[in-house]
Specification:
5 strands, globular
């Protein structure tokens, strides 16, 4: 999931609601049209703002990565063992140990460097 977040800029709630069907243009574009509710493992068809509904183009390397990741999957890309959405408030506690709290930022910087969008003098 961190690859998706870093490569697209999606909000966590949006990334958790991405389904295989949201990939278009031969897997090179993601349609963002839903999110996971903050306090409930439920996908809703509205976003934080009206302007948040969008299409996000993927770098070819990222599109290829997700093409492999999506193979054989239906429904949500990231779900619990029961097939329900993760609650994004629990992700950090569930997936990261105390020494890994900065991992998403480190991964984002690494991916951005690999894709050529961040240089040493141009960090965000």
């Amino acid at each position: 999931m961190y690859v998706l977040l870093a490569a697209t800029g999606l909000r966590v709630s949006e990334a958790l609601a991405v389904e295989n069907k949201h990939f278009t243009n031969n897997g090179r574009t993601i349609i963002v049209e839903q999110q996971v509710k903050k306090d409930s493992p439920e996908v809703v068809k509205y976003l934080k703002t009206d302007a948040a509904k969008r299409q996000v183009d993927l770098h070819p390397d990222v599109a290829e990565y997700f093409q492999r990741y999506r193979t054989g999957k239906t429904g949500l890309l990231f779900h619990t063992a029961h097939g329900t959405p993760h609650l994004y408030g629990n992700l950090e506690d569930r997936w990261l140990t105390s020494g890994e709290r900065d991992l998403p930022r480190q991964i984002a910087i690494y991916i951005a460097r690999q894709l050529g969008s961040v240089t040493e003098g141009n960090r965000s």
